[in-house]
Amino acid sequence: MGPGPSDVSQRVLNAMARPTVGHLDPLFIDLMDDIKGLLQYAFKTDNPLTMPVSAPGSAGMEACFANLVEPGDKVLVCVNGVFGQRMVENVTRCGGQALVVEDDWGKQTDLQKVEDKLSAHPDIKILAFVHAETSTGVRNDAQQLCKLARQYDCLNIVDAVTSLGGIELDVDGWGIDAVYSGSQKCLSCVPGISPVSFGPRAVERIQNRKVPVQSWFLDMNLIMGYWGKGGKRAYHHTAPVNSLYALHESLLMLKEEGLTQAWQRHQQGHQKLYKGLTDLGISFAVDESYRLPQLNVVSIPDGVDDAAVRKHLLDEFNLEIGAGLGNLAGKVWRIGLMGFACKDRNIDHCVASIAKAIRQPCV
Amino acid sequence: MGPGPSDVSQRVLNAMARPTVGHLDPLFIDLMDDIKGLLQYAFKTDNPLTMPVSAPGSAGMEACFANLVEPGDKVLVCVNGVFGQRMVENVTRCGGQALVVEDDWGKQTDLQKVEDKLSAHPDIKILAFVHAETSTGVRNDAQQLCKLARQYDCLNIVDAVTSLGGIELDVDGWGIDAVYSGSQKCLSCVPGISPVSFGPRAVERIQNRKVPVQSWFLDMNLIMGYWGKGGKRAYHHTAPVNSLYALHESLLMLKEEGLTQAWQRHQQGHQKLYKGLTDLGISFAVDESYRLPQLNVVSIPDGVDDAAVRKHLLDEFNLEIGAGLGNLAGKVWRIGLMGFACKDRNIDHCVASIAKAIRQPCV
């Protein structure tokens, strides 16, 4: 119950352990089509260029920036946590010029500040932000941010690593141009895969680049030849076949449950956890109006030893919860309720274990 | 029995299906140390910076080039197949200047031509080549090429995707500076992971770069913080936990068998396949002195329909063999004898199936 990887169901583990077939085997090609369709469902998009990048979420992030940013491009990044900062790193390393809207960790990105920057710099080409900040438990207002981007004629890049499958995300409805996620959060698949989707405006930008994408491995112009609809399935790199079996199974489970039902389950799980922890006197660090249900950031009670309690929880109760990152290190815990792990039994166990761990000295 | 992914043993599949733990869990940290030690054994190196990149071999290639090539650097690349060409792409995309020694596909890289280039261009900083060319079945003379590189004061980058575990490879003995491999060839692990190793001269170059590595995801300066010895295991990206369980198990199996024994098994398997196929009148496309035992490139007999026979083998005999790539498309088949798949039963089945498939019309 940390910030991810989340628990993986036996069903997904079993799927992953099926015999490895070739990445150009007709059986596998059919599976690729299925995965694409299921990802379109999960992202709520008809984008043909919707596929899993063969590497973790950080590589999905890099795929979006490396393909869309050209040297000299101005990119406005909203930073209110670790992953916004990582976006700035990506822009810079792609030769872009990063402008930043900063907000306090634990607060939402301020829409007015974003609009001010967009209107002051009409040459900004891309607006990038994190939908669900895993480092702080904050939901940024993706719908409004995308609207602003469109209004100022920018593309947008959205980090949906922790949001996909956990809270409402509507790629086509909100006009998202490029989005990446991770397999190991609310999809409860094994870590190592990053679903991405590129809309028509993004594809056009990629196809009309002036300079080649600096990464061969992540160049969507080449990857489209393997994952593209009706394509020749031209060999680009060897796909991580077994991890894609796992992704396929986890997406099937999401579809069986239903996207809206999955969002509701996360919200209900959060409410149960909220009640349990506040009854113990533990307070939530993020305002309710933009708090993530799947990533609960709570203040460490006074006098409690952060690391000792987390070690005790792991050793005695087989329970992992996450430490604070960056500015929040030592001040908060991050409790994940993601995907398969978001269920009553886990929440009861979590609350009971934390109750015991903070009431007794455990060093 | 294609050019990879090779067959994965049930033991490795079972290991992979163990419950996912966190990438910062103490249990997993111990496993990381084990993996590092086992990779050092497989590569024959004491390099502390020996670890698995969390993505396929193509990303391992990119990790080597992106970390070692700086804009403007001259890199000499030996090209005699697809993967040498891909190296050239990597050099260019890193802002380097690629010089090329070209040899015919199916022939070895000519050492004299390499030496001529190195001596004509004393400002070449890196010599890069493929040890085992998966596209042609050729073994390049890694030991001599590394010696030349050292003699002309260049770093070397070696593609060992198909060689690791299949033929002799001696990273420290040959003075290799940077090497990458793949999980899915002679290690018979699932695809998606790329073991790499960087020697002291390479690490020094990386630590003294003038410009940051253009890839955040593959920046070894950052990754060292997670995989480094005695480090803080600082979070960089979420490791592909289950795929690393699988890698660990496949490396254990290699160590149990013994590296030299594994090389011998591949050689013996090749000899058996050679006898079986030449008895059918099928000839081998690569000269014996530099032929790879683990990747057998054979000429398609006259009058035989390439695609139809491969489809027939897959549909009727559950046997995958590989098509020719690039210049060799339609002219050769590529038969893998890699890792777990390199065993008598498979070879008998392969020879018998090909015998039936080429003797009867199968369209």
Description:
The structure is a homodimer of 363-residue chains. Chain A is α/β, with parallel strands linked by helices and 363 residues long. Chain A folds into two domains: 10-256, Aspartate Aminotransferase, domain 2; 259-359, Alpha-Beta Complex (Aspartate Aminotransferase, domain 1), CATH 3.90.1150. Helix content of chain A is 42%, strand content 15%. Chain A has twelve helices and twelve strands. The first copy, chain A, has helices at residues 10-16, 26-43, 57-68, 82-93, 111-120, 142-151, 200-207, 220-227, 241-257, 259-279, 306-317, 344-359, and strands at residues 49-53, 74-79, 97-102, 124-130, 132-133, 138-139, 155-159, 178-180, 194-198, 295-299, 322-323, 332-336. In chain A, the strands form three sheets. Chain A has a seven-stranded mixed sheet, with helices on both faces. In chain A, α1 (10-16) packs antiparallel against α9 (241-257), α5 runs parallel beside α6 (142-151) and α11 (306-317) packs across α12 (344-359). The longest helix of chain A is centred in the last third of the chain and has 21 residues, at 259-279. In chain A, 55% of the residues are buried. The mean pLDDT of chain A is 96. Chains A and B meet through α1, α3, α4 and α9 of A and α1, α3, α4 and α10 of B.
